[in-house]
Amino acid sequence: MYHPDAIISEGLCLQILSVAQRYGDPALATQVFDALANLKVPYREHYFYPLIDAYGRAKEFRNAFIVIGLMRETCPTPPRYHQLDSFIGAVGESGQTLDRAFFILQDMVEKEGKKVDIEAVNVLLEACVRLPDISRAVTTYGDINRLKVQPNLGTFNILLRAARVVGHVNLCMHILSNLNEAKCTPNQETYETVILTFVNLPTKEYDPAFIYLEEMKAAGFIPTWGLYKAFVVKCAYHRDERAEKLLEEMDKLGHSTDGLRKYLLGSRVTFNPEDIDYRMRILATPNIDEDGNWITRSRLGNRGLAGEQPEEVRREVTSEGPEGAEEEQELSQLGAEVTEEVRQGVAEGVKPVQEEVKEEVKEDEVVS
After folding, report:
1. Against a cut of 0.70, is the pTM above it?
2. Partners of residue 288 on adjacent β-strands
3. How far apart are the first and last CA of the chain?
């Protein structure tokens, strides 16, 4: 136990925090904060994240959410959900832990009168996407007004990624509309996620992706090599002449194009535009490196949808006012569509795909 008169160096405090984080010992972590207070050391982000993770490993979600709020109030650097990977993993262990985390946040607001930080909600949404349980993520977003928080850009990016995971264009456009209404300025992640949602579609209806690509460049963002690769390979699937123009753009930006040109010349890709389950089992970009080398791997589970989601009791969505009711009804409908598409894709697509992948692997072995 820490003695108030003991003087512990800041470096030793960090080491103790690391141990507390690793073994899920929040009591030890809080004693480190007492030692830091004696040293009169200002609290920084690298002190808070281990404490939050320690609470998460100990399944003390309420305290972890409280610390996220304290971090915003006392730390020069605000909390960021993507720095809380371990805590997100603890929250997203199962549908039960996700619902437990939501009800904790709800009780904090409605019963205790506490303020919930938006990054705590983002942790919950990210955990839903990683599980993956996209319909629960949509439901949670529909309940966000009950938590009295204002969505930020991180919130919308998480939800856009959820729409991309299941290839749901309507959900993507709905979230993008909400982003604009909230007057959030899209960043590079926003544009790339929306673009890939269209590029990953199994049909030829990916022209909107080019519109968003131009908007992205007009906003001052430089498309990555991986994003261009998705475009080029998609165009190759559909014999789209715009692939050559994209390669020229890549050359101007200094991106390597030798591998993609080599791939286009000796493309081994076959694609059936009528394959409605395509987005459920294969990424729009084949696994090739910058030198054009083909890397064979199973395409199952790329989107984390290789198994049915467990039947869980969904939270009832309620709201105040007619506008909120219409908004939540629309979100509820989108969530139902997502769940149904996932289940149908899993039921109808997984078995034949397994056989297809096995045949392709055998062909690759024969060729090699």
Report:
1. yes
2. 294
3. 63
